[in-house]
Amino acid sequence: MTSPNILLAHGSGGAMMHELIESFFASYGSDELLRADDAAVLGLGATCASRIAFSTDTFVVTPHFFPGGDIGRLAVCGTVNDVATSGAEVRWLSVGLVLEEGFALEDLRRICVSIADAAKEANVKIVTGDTKVVNRGHGDGIYINTSGIGLLGHGAPVLGGAQCKPGDKVLLSGTIGDHGIAIVSTREGLRFSTTIQSDAAPLNHLVSAVLAAAPHTRCFRDPTRGGLSSTVNELSAQSGTVFEIEEASVPVADEVRGACDMLGYDVFQVANEGKMVAVVPPDETEAALAAMRGARYGEQAAVIGEVCAVSEGSRPAAFVRTAFGSRRVLDMLAGEQLPRIC
Amino acid sequence: MTSPNILLAHGSGGAMMHELIESFFASYGSDELLRADDAAVLGLGATCASRIAFSTDTFVVTPHFFPGGDIGRLAVCGTVNDVATSGAEVRWLSVGLVLEEGFALEDLRRICVSIADAAKEANVKIVTGDTKVVNRGHGDGIYINTSGIGLLGHGAPVLGGAQCKPGDKVLLSGTIGDHGIAIVSTREGLRFSTTIQSDAAPLNHLVSAVLAAAPHTRCFRDPTRGGLSSTVNELSAQSGTVFEIEEASVPVADEVRGACDMLGYDVFQVANEGKMVAVVPPDETEAALAAMRGARYGEQAAVIGEVCAVSEGSRPAAFVRTAFGSRRVLDMLAGEQLPRIC
Questions:
Q1: Between residues 50 and 109 of chain A, which touch chain B (CB distance below 8 Å)?
Q2: Which domains are delineated in chain A?
Q3: ipTM above 0.90 for this complex
Q4: Over 60: is that where the pLDDT of A225 sits?
Q5: Beta carbons of B32 and A4 less than 8 Å apart
Q6: pTM attached to this predicted model
Q7: How many angstroms separate the CA atoms of B53 and B152, rounded?
Q8: B133 touches chain A (CB under 8 A)
């Protein structure tokens, strides 16, 4: 690596984080860890037909409270959504808190209530927890780790980025960029901050609805850190395909588009916390789209592109077709666009 | 609560932390969370005879490297031991890192190798992970959350503090106080730091050996934060009994005893990271002790006391019988003795 020290970009969800994972965590010798899906799917042995899905995520967002949510809601929804991408029924969560000496108990109380409300909405149970306190001046008040477990019944399909095939359609559950722009605008005290809300939401019910309508769905992925751009790049690399996204088909709120123009952000690289990408076979696309639109948080779902074969002599990649008919490479976030968004 | 803000003592594993859990996390409405055993045991439904055990722990110890281990080994062993207390076969771990901008990649590499080595020794697999980076000046270089899952086969006994009964014997797998004293002596640069090593170790194999030899074992508990004192107080409260500990029977290394005298610590309240308490019925005590002594990390195991009925008009409590025949209450750590030890 270029620097001998950790940089903020190592946590961006982009290329540097992938480099860190490959060069450091490969030593764990775990296929599941390196498979690069959002949750590990684990068999329970001969006596049990079910499998479980397991995922973990730590939340360090600042500020702790923002339009549309807070770090507590984010911590529950983020892990619920990661487990849900496996197609599992999300059942149980752990909550590990790192609190800073001097953190206001009233803020902690608000965050705990928010955790309880989000868990109730997702219909998951918080079954184990841990609390550590670090010295004043460290830890930014509160960090929250959540780990989640879901159940996959006997015969549940194996979902994953590697399952994507040429001809598949790419669905997106709604507008992109809302969470990242809500955070930065709150942080910077920008004017439009009042109109843009984080989209943080539990999407496990939406995922179940899509799976019921489109049983051959290839994979789900929630485009959080690194945005939609990192997600489609990961999927193309996992499946050895080319992802073609139609820019005009991707829902973006006007305020978000305006904020991105003003701040110089590529909206495809801005984080989301309540959106889901689904890749489905062509003959199940309509059913999947209808199911998404019929589910809570999926009203603005759209088909945003398709999966293509890699052409002779080229490599897996992701592209965007602009409204003007031009075609540009959709790069994975290289450095750090906006730290501490989740 | 007395203070409107979080105090270091809220993370001590003692009375204030229990108060925090009861007053804040009760809102999650989860019996499992409040049962106060180290791992939640979860049924997988009608199609599966097995159950799983689930536990989480975050590690914020400073310094990151100390005699006998480092934060990586601690993070694996701590959660492996918590899951093992349920009697489950520990199988899978998640690793969530919070890295500080500027943290040395070389230190991260050493810690990752240590994580991999400890997981190999415990025979558990790291299957999912997450990495966040926080701004320079926050986070003390590295915090590590590990969550763990174990399997309980059909018919595996239900273990837990509530199972302890009058007449049961209390076993301890070895000397107490080593970890806490190793940390403080390294931190303060005390002379004896060279001779006292942390006991951080995975005890899942020891637990399995005891269970095989003493199938009616009531519970296991690893006396970490708050020390042996918090553990026996928790067990007496959970089971509505009185725990009587024989001071002379509790193994303590001379250097640790000396350090505690010098620093004014009660060795019963000093943290351990590689010790296990087991409560077993009288007729299985010998077999359990032999199994502990035959297992790695259990060579110095001893029977340290027994469980008694609460006498008329008194309440569940823990006592120590001193060598001089006197009897004193074994208090749960009230404030903060030594922060950031795990």
A1: 50, 52, 54-60, 91-92, 94-106, 108-109
A2: 39-152 (3.30.1330.10), 161-329 (3.90.650.10)
A3: yes
A4: yes
A5: no
A6: 0.95
A7: 7
A8: yes
